[in-house]
Structures are given as C-alpha cells and as structure tokens.
Amino acid sequence: MPLGQALLKKGILTQAQLDEALEIQKQGKNLYLGEVLQHLGVNQNKINETLDFINKRKKIGDILIDLGLLTPEGLERALKDQKLIQSKMGTRKPLGILLFELGLISYSDYMTALSKHFAIRIVSLEGSRANPSLQDVLGRKYVCKHEVLILEDDGRTIKIALGAPTTFLMQEIRKSIPPHREIVFFLAHPMEIAAAYKVMYDPFSQNRDR
After folding, report:
1. What's CA 131's distance to the chain center, in Å?
2. How far apart are CA 107 and CA 31, in angstroms?
3. Any idea what DSSP says for residue 177?
4. Are 187 and 120 in contact (CB under 8 A)?
5. How far is it, in rounded angstroms, from Cα 107 to Cα 84?
6. Which of 157, 183, 152 is CA-nearest to residue 49?
7. Which residue from 10, 14, 144, 161 puts its CA 20 to 30 A from 108's CA?
C-alpha cells in the first residue's frame, strides 16, 4: 500500500491533504511524499511509523541516484564492497558512509539522502549552544554514545538532533519518551554534535589559553 493511502486508512490525514501533497510533489523535483506531508504539518512520527509498517522507505542508494548524485555503476561497486567488508569483518558498514569513504559522494550528499530516507529535516548547529540539562531526558552517556542532541523541550514537544539516525535508534528514543509527548527529529552533522558536546561538557573548551 502506498504511503498516502496507508495514512488515509489510519485517519492520519484527509483526502484533501493528500491531494494537496501530491500536487506539490508533482510540481517539485525529487520531492518525496513523506517530506511534503511533514512540510504541510502532518506528524513526523506518524509518517515514519507508517513508512516502517508498510516497508516503503526508499533506500539510500536509490535516493542518491534519483538526485543525480550517484551512478548505478557507483552504487553497484559500493554494494559489492559492502558485502566484502561484511564477510571479512562480520559487521555491515552503512552504505552512505562507504560511498563517502570511496569518494563517490560528499558528506553533504549523504546527509541529503538520509534526510529524505527518514523524512527528517537537516539542521545546522553551528554557533548554537545546547542546554546540558536537556540531555538528562535521555542521559548524558546515551546521547554521547548515539550522537544525539536534545535541542528543545517545551513540555509538549521535544526536538532532537541525530548525527547517525537509524530506524532502531528512533524507535528506542520514542519508547523512552512518554507517549503524550511529541518528538520531532532533525538531522545534524556528527561533527557539529561533537562540538556541542565539547562546549557543554568541557568547561575549558572556550578557553584559548588552555
């Protein structure tokens, strides 16, 4: 079942909303329905939960090809390397990271594909300061381990930046937050998240004479 029809069936959006989103999608270039619906105000978590339920989440490699950032030949090469690494090391390297390491895409390209894959927006943390006490919602050790940064919490909505999003991580975070609270995920560069940790947890990080 397509995403739009699944959301209609669940009562998450109306036919009028779907029609509007489909029209916007037609007019744009390489717009995915999930990101259009989110822009129109449809709950991000509902979109992602439905994408996981119907197993319609587009793969990173296919997104990069759609955007003209990767050739089919480049994708095939990376997939072969990914299988070889997995057979030798016993671990599966994320395809986007591998493509970046092979020089086939830039890290910015990878973030663009991740943003579309997970229907979450990219946010810049440059020049911003995060509140250390906000991280206690998930715990300092947890956020540092998983490259997570809590940006805002107004009591109803929690805004969270992820440096390395996965379906499992997003589901795990949702389970740790009371169900009446809305979570809005963003994608941030891992280096910017690391810099935010340094400012929060290293009292000397801003001291040039250290």
Report:
1. 21
2. 20
3. S
4. yes
5. 22
6. 183
7. 144
Could you tell me if 183 and 173 are in contact, meaning their C-beta atoms sit under 8 angstroms apart? yes
Q: Report d(CA 103, CA 89) in Å as an integer.
A: 21
Residue 170 corresponds to which tokens in the numbers above?
């997003």
Q: Give the confidence band of 200 by pLDDT, cuts at 50, 70, 90.
A: confident
Using an 8 Å Cβ cutoff, are 117 and 57 in contact?
A: yes
β pairing state of 182-187 and 121-122: parallel
Q: What is the pLDDT of residues 50-72, one digit of tens each?
A: 998 998 889 999 999 999 999 99
The CATH code belonging to domain 120-205 is 3.30.300.160
pTM of the complete model = 0.87
Q: Report which secondary-structure segment, H or E, holds 121.
A: strand 121-122
Q: Which two tokens stand for residue 181?
A: 């609270």
Question: Parallel, antiparallel, or unpaired: how do β-strands 157-162 and 182-187 relate?
Answer: parallel
User: Tokens standing for 4?
Assistant: 């739009």
Q: For residues 6 and 11, what is the distance between their CA atoms, to the nearest angstrom?
A: 9
